[in-house]
C-alpha cells in the first residue's frame, strides 16, 4: 500500500479533477463571459470596489490582462470605473447591477448543472462529496491567498 502523502493523493485526484473541470465548463458554459471575467466579477461582488492593481494581484494576472478584461466588462455595462476618493489620481472599479445580475444568473445555471452531476452519486458518495466540499473550499481559499500574496501561482 502506498504511503498517504500529498504526492500520492495528487496523482490519484488530478487527472479526474482535470477531466471534470474540462467537461463541466464545456457543458456549463452558458454565458459568453470567460472564466477570468467571471472570477473578476465574483471578486468585485465579494470585495466591493477595487483598484485594477489590486484585482490583478489577487487574480494572479498582469495589469494589462486585468485592464483588458475590465475594459471588456465595462463595455458590456457590468462594471464601472469610479474616481478613488482617497487618491484623486486613482481609479476603482465597481460591479454594476447588471454585472451582479449576470453573475447570479451564471452562478445559478452552473450550480444546477453541477447538481445534475452529483445526482449520479449514491447516498454514501453524496455524504463523502459533502465532506470533500469542505476540504476543497479550504484548499481554494488557501490557494487563492497564495496567488494574491505572490502573484505568480
Structural overview:
- It comes from Corynebacterium frankenforstense DSM 45800.
- Keywords: DNA-binding, Transcription, Transcription regulation.
- InterPro entries: HTH_MarR-typ, WH-like_DNA-bd_sf, WH_DNA-bd_sf.
- This protein is mainly alpha-helical.
- The chain folds into two domains: 7-117, Orthogonal Bundle (Arc Repressor Mutant, subunit A); 121-153.
- 70% of the residues lie in helices and 8% in strands.
- It is built from six helices and three strands; from the N terminus they run ααβααββαα.
- Strands 1-3-2 form a three-stranded antiparallel beta sheet.
- A hairpin with a 7-residue loop joins strand 2 (79-83) and strand 3.
- Helix 3 (52-59) packs across helix 4.
- The longest helix has 28 residues, at 123-150.
- It is globular.
- The model has no long low-confidence stretch (mean pLDDT 86).
> Number of helical segments?
6
Low-confidence stretches: none
The name of the CATH topology of the largest domain is Arc Repressor Mutant, subunit A
Strand order of the largest sheet: 1-3-2
In short:
It is built from 6 helices and 3 strands, in the order ααβααββαα.
Please render the helix and strand layout as text.
Layout: H1 6-28, H2 35-47, E1 50-51, H3 52-59, H4 63-75, E2 79-83, E3 91-95, H5 97-118, H6 123-150
Antiparallel strand pairs: 1-3, 2-3
Helix pairs in contact: 3-4
